[in-house]
Amino acid sequence: MERQQELMAEFVAGRHNLFAFIQGLVRNPHDSEDIFQEVWVRFSRALAEGVEILDQAKWCRGTARNLILHFWRDRRKAAVPADEQLLDLVELAFAEQSANQDYWRARQEALAECIQELPERSQGLLRLKYEDGLPAHEVAGKLRQTSAAVLMALSRLRRALRECAEKKLRLQGLSQ
Amino acid sequence: MNPLEQLLAKWEAGNLSPAELGELKQLLARPQARAELVGNWLLDESIHDTLRSQAAGALAPARAQVSLAHPQPATRPFRAPRRRFRWLVWHEVRFTAGWLLGAAAAACLALAGLHSYFQRAALGSLTDVRSEVTVEHGGTTRPAISDGRLHPRDIVRVPAGGAATVTWAGEATRLDLAPGSELRLFNPMWGKRLSLEAGALDASVASQPRWRPMIIATPQAEAKVVGTRFSLSATLASTRLEVLEGLVRLRKSLPARPHENQEVLVHAGETATAAPDIRLVAQLITGSLSSDAWAVPPGTAFADAPARGTRLSQTGLSAAPVNTVERLRGYLLAPVSGDYTFWIGTPNDETAAELWLSADDHRARQRRIAYLKPPPTATHGTAAARQKGPSRKRGSNSALEADVQRYPSQESAPQRLVEGRRYYLEIWHEGVGPATIALCWRRPGDPAAAPPKLVDIQALRPLGEAPQPSEAAK
Questions:
Q1: A87 is a domain residue
Q2: For B375-395, what is each residue's pLDDT tens digit?
């Protein structure tokens, strides 16, 4: 039971990485949520059944990978092209970063603060893109701008957020 | 935007051409680009998560409130996606109708019955236990007994010099565990699930249901078996698979490097090695006997070499370090029926060797029939010792034949073999390579005073090769 609780706590701590892995590959927040939920259900079921899980993050990424492959195969019209080799590289990228969990967790918290410091107009743009999951051309339609302008604004916002978070981390004496 | 961001944006929009996909993969082959990708995606996730938390009226650090006291299968974790919520509401309404409850209860009963049936059918038991084999169950270690039943999460440990076989009731499947092996068993609900933590095993697997295959995991790989015969050995650094019959799918546990296979199908007569620095490919087993070699600490017993030594790759054999132990194994095809006498020898008899022969083609029934243990003054297993003797090749040098008769223990008792049958054979010796070992025999019908002759290479087969009756009869 103690080990189960440890693994559950590890899942909670690493959920942002797992969700980023899924969302990056699926590129749709609603489908990503569904896959993330399914990984959680399978993980907790495996714990209840006493399955030996040595590396929680790896286990969850492996399960998510299978679900994403099914998702890609089921939806051939999905926005992103299915490519297993690319999936391997992405999985490797996340595996390599698993040692930097503390840094990414601190950056997550710093980013949350940075987002709240943004003006309302910029937050509105982010909401349309990230919360509603709208593609750039639909965001452009709502804001009566061109797609290129929306993409440029989003790119600048992301850069500003990254720099803001890194500045906060530097003040805390943290680096990657 | 930098090239990586541009390509990812195109990928997201579904506008990535095959050439650009190739470019993206090439970029991601660089560790720096991979780190950048993770950073970008985590940034997206942070934005998504923070906005969602704001919408829910909570700040990010306080949003994950999870009870860890009851880790039960969850239907709703940390977020409430709209789709799943709607589905839950619909589900609730249907359940109020009542009849689904009855169906669910019946399904549960059926599942419980199936679970119980498969649990019983898939649990193995230990047989042919030799030496102090132990079984750890629930944190308690006890000595293993022959015909003792095994349970999920049991760990079977075979010490140096020991042996044990795992069998399953109602089928011919058997796993012969080599000395120094550690085998862990898992819940068998979806088929036989085992993990070879260390050591080696020879498996003979009866046909398994396609949807419930046997899976044996090692620290580096996973072998998926539907029905076949193979040999699997695992160390901390690598896992080696040799398939005798059928087909085994070997999958690397660690993510493969770019342009490398994550898994490989290994056919009969082929071998594959899974290790971080070795490309995963299936190769033909070649040579008259299959060879494994280890660099070992001085004074290591042969049986301990797989556990205590470092496996040497085939390419590293020529530059073998000072203390090396080689295991040659395969089958002896008896050309005629009758009593055979065997001899084992090494150059000037300065290095140790052992000859093991089975009563049939199973490793579990092998026993030592001849050995050479030089006096302590000799320089065991050193490169110098290997080079002292004249250069020898099998089947060409009469001086070798004299070497095998220096000590009585080098000669075996008469072994009765049947024409056309194959017999499992194992040779352990210090040093590496064919010039360091001589295996001689006297065949039935040879005069009793006839000197030992080198065993005809035609009568030896590596592990992967099945006997050809026509060849055996020659």
A1: no
A2: 765 444 443 333 333 333 333
- Residues A16 and A55 placed together within one structural domain of the fold: yes
Do A75 and A6 share a structural domain? yes
Whether the CB-CB separation of B364 and B128 falls below 8 Å is answered with yes
Same domain, A118 and A157: yes
To the nearest whole angstrom, how far is the Cα of A170 from the nearest Cα of chain B? 16
Q: Contact B78/A15, CB-based, under 8 Å?
A: yes
Its domain, for residue A33, covers 2-82
- Whether chain A has a CB inside 8 Å of the CB on B65: the answer is no
Whether residue A51 sits in one domain with residue A6 = yes
- How many domains are there within chain A? 2
* DSSP-assigned letters across all residues of B354-413: EEEEESSS-GGGEEEEEEE---TTS-TT-HHHHHHSPP--TTT-HHHHHHTTSSGGGBPP
Instruction: Read off the pTM.
Output: 0.38
32-51 in chain B: CB under 8 A from chain A: 34-35, 37-51
Cα three-residue angle B129-B130-B132, rounded to 5 degrees: 100
- Give me the residue from B24, B59, B74 closest to A86, CB to CB: B24
Facing residue for B44 by CB, picked from A17, A91, A130: A130
Cα gap A15→A61, rounded to integer Å = 11
Least CB-CB distance to A93: which of B28, B49, B84? Answer: B28
Last residue in a domain, options A53, A82, A111:
A82
- Cβ B149 vs Cβ B123: under 8 Å: yes
CATH assignment at residue A132: 1.10.10.10
Residue A28 lies in a domain: yes
Nearest residue of B to residue A127, measured between CA atoms: B51
pLDDT in tens, A74-133: 775 555 556 778 888 888 888 888 777 788 888 888 888 888 888 888 888 888 888 777
pLDDT of residue B426: 92
Is B256 in contact with A88 (Cβ distance < 8 A)? yes
First to last CA, chain A: 34
Q: Give the minimum alpha-carbon distance from A36 to chain B in angstroms, rounded to a whole number.
A: 9
Q: What is the nearest CA distance from A89 to chain B, expressed in angstroms?
A: 7
Q: Do B84 and A126 touch (CB under 8 A)?
A: no
The rounded distance, in Å, linking the Cα atoms of B270 and B285 is 5
